[in-house]
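Re: duplicated header lines in exported structure tokens

Our pipeline writes sequence and tokens for each protein into one text file. With two proteins the header for the second block appears twice in some exports. Here is an export where it did not happen, for reference. First protein block:
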Amino acid sequence: MGRGEASMQLALVSSLVKDNRGNPMVLNKKAQGQSHFARTLNWKTNWKTGIERMKDAYMKSKGFYDALAMIDDRNEYKITLLARIEAISGWQGNHMLSDFHTRVEAGGILTIAQAEVIGKAEHKAPAAPTPAASDSDLLIRMRELYKAAKAKNDSWLLTFLTSVGQQVKSGREPTEKQMAVLTKNFASYRI
């Protein structure tokens, strides 16, 4: 700061997690709004504006930043959380859990509150059911289609199958349009 060309930077960092050099891990550089704050005549005003911008960014996404600040290794986080979700019986049929799975699989993170939902689901989830003898041929084929669509990352079809699967399980037959979509995809995925 004592030099005429000196500047300062501002970043939101985690006090819990350190980078590979032992410095606090930077959570968000973009929220500062500019790459640096030069020592100009108005540097105090500019610095204050930058701090307010950073504070506002944090407050708008506090849950996200708090969760991000606790993650040491993003790859390990992804593997562990996906395994936890997939261990919950019927997670594919639960819109919230399947959304969480999709987000984590794409490299995103969950807020602390969302992670707590997974914890609650783990504690109340019964053992994974085996297909019952009463399951219709349609449900069995839909399960096979779901597996194939998941392997191809066909998120629209996964959402569609989850919705129609819940409908069929509740005793309501698929509509003509739903059956047309199912028939087309059974043929497309060779099921």
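Second protein block, exported in the same file:
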Amino acid sequence: MAENTKIEYIGKTLLITTNGKRILVIGDLHLGYEGALRETGVLIGDEMLKEYIGELDRVFDKIVSESGKKLLSDVRRGNGVTDGEPYMRGKLNNGVGCIGNNKGIVDEIVLLGDVKHVIGKVMREEWNDVLAFIDYLSDKCSKIVIVKGQHDTLLEPVIRKRGCVELKDYYVLDNVCFMHGNKDFDICYDDGIEYWILGNAHPAVKISDGVKMEKFKCFLTGKYKGKKVTIVPSFIYANEGSDVREYDYRMAWEFDYDKFEVIISEDLKGLDFGKLGKLR
């Protein structure tokens, strides 16, 4: 990693600092998942967006905690709003721009694809939740980039309502290339690219203490053809993710996962558990 590039693990997100810019990276969201389940007859609540925003409030609180600014959670409680309450639900801005004050907690936010869940159509719940989520994020940055996943084929008509969002097949910023992970691109092999940030895989790891087995969402970090690779865990709560020792991630590259480091997402920390090949 270049000396001017720094990466921090904050829960299930990454904070990348490169050439003075701070970029928050969020993995697969699958907004609309609950609505899709209800369409099949599964009785499930409507808590996903609330949980996402509650967790991200804590992420942003951690980012600003040393800056002397008032924490988001304090501001919300002072206004009689509970942590994680769905942001602007039912009050969506139908104009072409984003709402919010662009407070600049971070410079940019990159969503690593599969922002919506259903393939082949846009459910009303997806439409509303995607826009509400973008409105929430737009209050924390000046630019949002979505790298398109296989679930996002019909996302463009939705985000067209928000002028601060860019939808791309991949995104390059300085020496970092952001991709969903299901497709390869020639540009990611350029000499100036040192770091790949990927989604798609929903990585998790099973760990046993000899008595019981538990599964944890995790980051996987390693090297491939001279590039430093980080696979980001999914942000979705309803899916624990998959252990690559049991499930083919169907990524666009044949990574040697045994040589990848396992960084477990725990609370707002990233805990290094060493190489996957040595983890039992």
